[in-house]
Write a structure and sequence with these properties.
Elements lengths: L5 H20 L6 E5 L2 E5 L5 E6 L5 E8 L4 E7 L5 E5 L7 E5 L5 E7 L4 E6 L4 E6 L10 E5 L5 E7 L4 E6 L6 E6 L6 E5 L5 E7 L4 E6 L5 E8 L6 E7 L3 E6 L3 E6 L4 E6 L9 E5 L8 E6 H5 L4 H21 L6 H10 L8 E3 L4 E3 L4 E2 L5 E2 L8 E5 L6 E5 L22 E5 L2 E5 L14 H9 L19 H47 L3 H15 L21 H17 L1
Antiparallel strand pairs: 1-2, 1-24, 2-3, 4-5, 5-6, 6-7, 8-9, 9-10, 10-11, 12-13, 13-14, 14-15, 16-17, 17-18, 18-19, 20-21, 21-22, 22-23, 25-26, 27-28, 29-30, 31-32
Helix pairs in contact: 5-6
Amino acid sequence: MRTMTSREYLIVTLTIVFGIHAVNTNAKSWDLAVTIGREIEFFSQNQSLTRRIEFEKASSLAAFVYDDSTQTLFLSDTNSTVPLFSSNLLEGDVTTKPLYKGNSNIVGLAYDDKTRNLFWTDTTQGAIIRMHVPLDGPPGKPTVLHKIEGKNLHGIAVDPCNSHIYWVNSDKTNQCIERSNFDGTDRVTIVEGDMYKPLAIAIDHAEGKLYWTDASNAVHSEIERSNLDGTDRELVIRVDYQQLVYIAVDRDTIYWSDWVHRWIWSFPKNGDSSGLPSQFVSYHGQYNRNVHGIVTRYNAGIVSDCKALAKEREMNKLTNKAELRNNLPIITTEESESITEKSKYCLNGGVGNETDNSCHCKHRFTGKYCEIDLCHNYCLQGSCSVDEYNGLPICKCNGTFVGPRCATDPCKDYCLHDGQCSVQNEKPVCKCKYSEGSRCEDLSNTTKVCGIYCAKTESVPKYTSVIDCSRCDEANKASAQMVIMKEHNEYKILIIFGVLTAVLIVIIIVLSFYVNKLRRRPGNHSENIFDAENCCNMNICETPCFEPKLSTAVPERKGIKKEEKNCLLDNMEKFAW
């Protein structure tokens, strides 16, 4: 065996060294990156962990973005005096460069590699902020683009090809998604209504779609999407018992971080909205670390060529139009020849042209012999007609179905807590029974509701099909029972008080009646006086009237007769006794 020369040994050694270094820094060595605690972990699409970087001086990493051209990470660190710093993946030893110092809580971060501008949401200041980060030299001074009332900011995203920034506002009085230019001008609201608490937002640059998360209530959360102008809003997936904090997309998949289970979930972008997500990676049990930001390598690197993106979107539109053709009935060669042999004229009212043996079809039909009906199986839940200008089929949907082919029912699982759903202007509207909110998501008195529907009392029924009684803990149930018993006692006291009041009123009426009757009855004394007066004055007495003897003479004076009569009456009373 020939021994290697020192030169050959050096070449092999360098090859091995640089080969290993290439594995660590190869642009294709990771597809998804996640911040967890003070670390950032890199995964391939097959869920394999390819690299882990720990930032010892960090406190708790949150949002981050990636510059694919320079392979640089920009990260935010909550509860730190250096809330924003950068790190280059090309360097052998991980080093950090502080970019911004101050009292800030940066929870959302976005980056434009063309202008090298960083954009972030600061919940401490309640503001959208921009800062220029040059290749060489110190970073620029941060500029406040927007002040947001309520300080309920979280996710932010950038559309470099149109120079737009997008952010979510989860304030209770103004849940919406807004957009403005890079310099803060032309601020508009593009998505509003039917929102509870939107948090995360991401842009699918390949398809020109906007994705966001919305915690509809304590139980349900949703991921929705729309065009970049807010039109064609649709539900992607609804999940239960998750708190969706950050979101990212790549060519075919959506990823999001969940604080309830401490998982990273994935779901196909064009999957069935009623389907179930898949677990991509789990951090369950690591309660000292929270999973936060997510970045996909594909979506971060694809924005380098806006013209190529525009062409790809046009191809996608053509593919969507071809879907109509794919849904039309297929006429085989044998069927076409059979039509030619059996018929010398065009079908479905078409007019033949003998010059070129072609057919001029009537409106809504196409094909060589006008044999294809454009409306055949096109509208899934509605009636079909054909537009006179572009010749394409259009649908008039039935019931609550919407969409170009009436394939979407926005009322499906939309209204919560037994709310009744209807569609107005192609948007679902809820009529609530015992709750409040745009989706009947707000149970204003949880204790009372748990008591009414979950407490085990004889007088109150139990409707477990309406309310998830498992979420009413024992304390709520006990409190609810006390509330119900208190209400019943108050009701009983009110009835007793009413009965006593009625009895008292009856007694008063009876007493008043008898008192009034006794007051009107004449006395015996007055009758005796009347009879005596009649006896003496009218000469009807059997015993003659007399005047008693007076011991002294009474001189005559005015009214003497009246005094004599009184004296006579007094003497008669004595005789009567």
